[in-house]
Amino acid sequence: MASHTNFRLHAFVWLALATTAFSLSPKFYDKVCPQALPAIKKIVQAAVHRERRMGASLLRLHFHDCFVNGCDGSLLLDSTSTMDSEKNARGNFNSVRGFEVVDQIKAEVDRVCGRPVVSCADILAVAARDSVVALGGPSWKVRLGRRDSTTASRTLADTVLPSASMDLPALINNFKNQGLNQRDLVALSGGHTIGLSQCSIFRNRIYNATNIDPAFAKERRETCPRVGGNTNLASLDPTPARFDTAYFKNLVKKRGLLTSDQALFNGGSTDKLVETYSLNPDAFWDDFAKSMIKMGNIKPLTGKQGQIRVNCRKVN
Ligand code: HEM
C-alpha cells in the first residue's frame, strides 16, 4: 500500500516537473528579457500604422506556421540547396507576407535583450496577438517558450494547409488533424474579418457558385475578370482593417468571399455558431482568443529541442 502511494507520488511529481519544464508559459521571458514583449508590440503597432493590412498578414503567418509541424518558426526559413522553403508551398507562394517585419522585430528584440533569447516561433505568436489588438480585436496572454525548428517541409505544408476550395467536411477534418474542433474552426476562420484575397483564389466562386448573393458576386466580378487580373485584391469582409463581426454577418448574407468561408454557413453543423458570432461580438472575441491559444499550443519545440535562431530565415 505504502509503496503504491509512493509510486503515485513519484509519478505525480515527475509529471508536474515535466509539464512545467516543457509547457509554454506567459511568463517565459519575464526574467530573462522583460523588454522583449514591449519591443514586439511597438514594431507591430508601427507596421500596422504604416499599412493596416500588415496586421492581417502577421496573423496569418502564425497560423501557417502552427499548422505545419507545430508552431516552430519553420515557415520563416528560406530555401537552401537541401531544403525547399514552406514559402514555396501552394497556400503560401505569392501569398503570405510580412517577413520583413518579422526580421525587423527579431533584430530589435535581440538588441534589447542583449542576445538571441526570443525564438522566431514566439515572435510570430506575439506579433499575431499584437496585430489583432492593433486592429481593434481582443487580447490574450500568449503562452511562450517555443523554440525554433532546424527544418522545414514544403511537401507537408502542401498537404496540411487548408485550401479555399474546401467544403465543410474537409475543413472540419483538416482542423481535427491539428487537434482543433468545429468551434475552433469557426472562431479562427473569423481571422478573415481582416485582410485581403486575390482574384485567382475567389474567381471560381464569384462566377460559378450558387450559394452566393448575386449582387455581391456581380460587384466582385467588376475587379476580378474571368481572364486576367489574377492578383487583383478584394477584402475578405467589408471592414478588412477592423477586427469586428462583419465577417460573420456577411456569411449569413451569403457574401462570403472564399468557398471555405461560405462553407461555414451553408446549411451544415456550423450555421448556428456563425449566427451566434454575427450577433455577439463578445462571444466571438472570447472564443477567438481561446482558440488562438489552443492553436499556439500545437506541437511546440521546448526545453532543449530545436534552437533559438539568430536569423529567422536561416538555421544557426
Ligand atoms: C479555415 C481554413 C482557412 C482557409 C481555407 C484560408 C484561406 C485563406 C486564403 C486563400 C487567403 C487569401 C490568400 C491570398 O489571396 O493570397 C487567406 C487570407 C487570410 N487568412 Fe486565411 N484561411 C483559413 C483560416 C485562417 C485562419 C485560422 C486564420 C487566422 C486565425 C486566417 C487568417 C487569414 C488572414 C488574416 C488573411 C489575410 C491576409 C492578408 O491580407 O495578408 N485564415 N486565407
UniProtKB/TrEMBL annotation:
Keywords: Calcium, Disulfide bond, Glycoprotein, Heme, Hydrogen peroxide, Iron, Metal-binding, Oxidoreductase, Peroxidase, Secreted, Signal. The keyword Heme applies. It catalyses: 2 a phenolic donor + H2O2 = 2 a phenolic radical donor + 2 H2O. One of its GO terms (biological process) is response to oxidative stress. Pfam families: peroxidase. It comes from the Eukaryota. Heme b binds at residue 192. GO terms for molecular function: heme binding; lactoperoxidase activity; metal ion binding; peroxidase activity. Residues 23-316 form the Plant heme peroxidase family profile domain. The record marks 60 as: Transition state stabilizer. One of its GO terms (cellular component) is extracellular region. InterPro entries: Haem_peroxidase, Haem_peroxidase_sf, Peroxidase_pln, Peroxidases_AS, Peroxidases_heam-ligand_BS, Secretory_peroxidase. Substrate binds at residue 162. Disulfide bonds join 33-113, 66-71, 120-312, 199-224. SUPFAM superfamilies: Heme-dependent peroxidases (SSF48113). The active site is at residue 64. Ca(2+) 2 binds at residues 193, 237, 244. Its EC number is 1.11.1.7. Binds 1 heme b (iron(II)-protoporphyrin IX) group per subunit. Binds 2 calcium ions per subunit. Its cofactor is heme b; Ca(2+). Belongs to the peroxidase family. Classical plant (class III) peroxidase subfamily. Belongs to the peroxidase family. Ascorbate peroxidase subfamily. This is Peroxidase.
